[in-house]
């Protein structure tokens, strides 16, 4: 270390860049130092890391929120998503706006500590988390029976992790929609970097009112995304309208399982905490998603909980990340203290950690699953509504 005259703040920034881009396979899986000196020493000792994500010093910068707005929007989110003892939030119709706010607050932190696929996957013995995630995503293509050149809709695409897996695996053309403009920018960046910009495109919009021609997609999917909808039938109806007759739709849904007991205060607490920390206006049951799909006209081909044995625990990665969280929290706290991260960043990071604990509890008790499979088909022919027939 002797003879290095680099200013400490610049050295810290370089260290955080290195640490933020090293994947450790846990939600908060960045091997971080416990202070400025330790962080500096780590980087100078171990050198450069493979660049995989956004720099830690850039957390929550570049979103549609100005830096001085982060804390204000965090407080708005915090107030709105307080849960009502298992009944969700008040004024559910306001959820899309606050979901947009949520992803302005968490997208960087998700990418920084989790990766580009904002979802869970069952653990597979002998396979890395990366491989398990890829298998979970390519299964979507298999379920949809995709063929090269088909047009596929990704409903709630985030920064496009599943999109790129589905497109590269099937050679189908995937169009993603996300309500968050910042995620569009990140997804386009990743698509180009992966050499998939000709197969993947992303638009900004509300999946309750999609800006596409009716019956313009061969297939559609949503990967842990429609749980954000204020009313599930509204988003399912919109997806139904986008599909060509005979088109398949597959969704991985967040639901309460048969083990959930609404009279058990512990079950209610766990589910409420998950909804609060993940911007869900409410948590549906596994039966409600099936009923919603049938109500809008879908034929339900298959539905089952992909988290059940022989699948390995999807929450394993979260549980392993508890210690790493504290190391990351030091980084976030230092960045906030030095003014390198906007005010409110620490609160958002703490919320995500507490939510991770609740997700683990949901998995271990079996009252919650983030991967209830719903496979549906739009009928080849549809009955003409009586009102339309008499018009």
TrEMBL record:
A Pfam family it matches: Methyltransf_11
rRNA-binding keyword on record: no
UniProt-listed Enzyme Commission number(s): 2.1.1.-
GO biological process: methylation; sterol biosynthetic process
Organism: Klebsormidium nitens (Green alga)
Pathway it works in: Steroid biosynthesis; sterol biosynthesis
Family: Belongs to the class I-like SAM-binding methyltransferase superfamily. Erg6/SMT family.
The protein's role, per its UniProt record: Catalyzes the methyl transfer from S-adenosyl-methionine to the methylene group of 24-methylene lophenol to form 24-ethylidene lophenol.
Stretches assigned to the SAM-dependent methyltransferase Erg6/SMT-type domain: 102-379
GO molecular-function terms, A-Z: 24-methylenesterol C-methyltransferase activity
Protein name: Methyltransferase
Residue ranges of the TM segments: 26-46, 325-344
Substrates-to-products reaction catalysed: 24-methylidenelophenol + S-adenosyl-L-methionine = (Z)-24-ethylidenelophenol + S-adenosyl-L-homocysteine + H(+)
Keywords of the record: Lipid biosynthesis, Lipid metabolism, Membrane, Methyltransferase, S-adenosyl-L-methionine, Steroid biosynthesis, Steroid metabolism, Sterol biosynthesis, Sterol metabolism, Transferase, Transmembrane, Transmembrane helix
Top EC class for this record: transferase
């Amino acid at each position: 270390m002797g003879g290095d005259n680099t200013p400490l703040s610049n050295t810290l920034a370089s260290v955080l860049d290195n640490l933020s881009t090293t994947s450790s396979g846990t939600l908060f899986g960045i091997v971080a130092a416990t202070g400025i000196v330790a962080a500096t020493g780590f980087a100078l000792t171990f050198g450069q890391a493979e660049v995989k994500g956004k720099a830690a010093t850039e957390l929550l910068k570049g979103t549609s929120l100005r830096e001085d707005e982060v804390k204000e929007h965090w407080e708005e989110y915090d107030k709105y998503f307080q849960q009502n003892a298992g009944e969700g939030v008040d004024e559910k119709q306001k959820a899309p706006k606050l979901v947009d706010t949520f992803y302005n607050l968490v997208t960087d932190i998700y990418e920084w500590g989790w990766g580009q696929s904002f979802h869970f996957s069952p653990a597979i013995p002998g396979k890395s988390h990366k491989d398990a995630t890829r298998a979970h995503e390519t299964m979507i293509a298999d379920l949809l029976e995709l063929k090269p050149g088909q047009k596929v809709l990704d409903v709630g695409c985030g920064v496009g992790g599943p999109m790129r897996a589905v497109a590269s695996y099937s050679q189908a053309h995937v169009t993603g929609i996300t309500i968050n403009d910042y995620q569009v920018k990140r997804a386009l960046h990743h698509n180009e970097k992966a050499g998939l910009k000709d197969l993947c495109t992303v638009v900004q919009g509300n999946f309750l009112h999609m800006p596409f021609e009716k019956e313009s997609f061969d297939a559609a999917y949503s990967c842990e995304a429609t749980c954000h909808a204020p009313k599930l039938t509204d988003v399912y109806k919109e997806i139904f309208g986008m599909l060509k007759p005979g088109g398949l739709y597959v969704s991985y849904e967040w639901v309460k399982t048969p083990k959930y007991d609404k009279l058990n205060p512990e079950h209610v607490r766990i589910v409420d905490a998950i909804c609060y920390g993940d911007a869900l206006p409410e948590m549906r049951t596994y039966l409600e998603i099936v009923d919603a799909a049938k109500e809008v006209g879908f034929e339900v081909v298959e539905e089952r909980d992909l988290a059940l044995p022989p699948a390995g625990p999807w929450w394993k990665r979260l549980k392993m990340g508890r210690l790493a969280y504290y190391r990351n929290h030091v980084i976030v706290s230092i960045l906030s203290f030095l003014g390198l991260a906007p005010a409110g960043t620490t609160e958002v990071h703490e919320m995500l950690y507490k939510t991770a604990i609740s997700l683990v509890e949901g998995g271990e008790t079996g009252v919650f699953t983030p991967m209830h499979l719903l496979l549906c088909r739009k009928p080849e022919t549809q009955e003409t509504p009586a009102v339309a027939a008499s018009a």
